[in-house]
Amino acid sequence: MVEERKWKKPSNGMTGVPVWSHDGIVCTGETYKNAVKMTFAKGAFVKDPSGLFNSSLEGNLRRAIDFHEGDTINVRALKALIKAAVKLNTSDRD
To answer: Which pLDDT score is estimated for 92?
Structure first.
């Protein structure tokens, strides 16, 4: 997994959006006033048996998780989601 910063703009202090990639973008992270959003680039094609995706559900490609202050994070389910997204990226290159 590689972490880098992309898409620098005034709204993110020109520091850019954190992007995690492995054979393509896996997910991005952005901070907002009331949430931290983790957006999976191909989330619509990643199985989410634990129901972590709670944002950007209407699109045909991306899915996101909005984390709010005080939320309990299901670490095991989040790791499984990340691994599934990486697996999807690596299977796409074949």
So the answer is: 62
